[in-house]
Fold this sequence. Notes:
By secondary structure, the protein is α+β, with helices and mostly antiparallel strands. It has one domain: Alpha-Beta Plaits, CATH 3.30.70. Helices cover 27% and strands 41% of the residues. It is built from 2 helices and 5 strands. Strands 4-1-3-2-5 form a 5-stranded mixed beta sheet, covered by helices on one side. A hairpin with a 5-residue loop joins strand 2 and strand 3. The longest helix has 13 residues.
Amino acid sequence: MRAVDVRVDGEVQGVGYRFGALRRADELELSGWVSNEANGQVTAHVEGLGHRIDKMLEWMREGTKWSHVSRVDVEDVAVQGIEGFTLR
Length: 88
């Protein structure tokens, strides 16, 4: 198991990014959450198998067809044992 905190910059709010992340996390059977921040970023905490997190990070670097991702910062963190993936 692996866990990461992710910070996404760019045009990622109001373009379905969080809902796309939720759908992709569900497809990959990952746990955690994704949230819009007041500064325009999207942040997320993702937990699961390493190769599945890698696929999630690939998606997060691309985003939806309406988003424009300019930067993704990833930090490995401790697994919290979260169940399911939610929007915040």
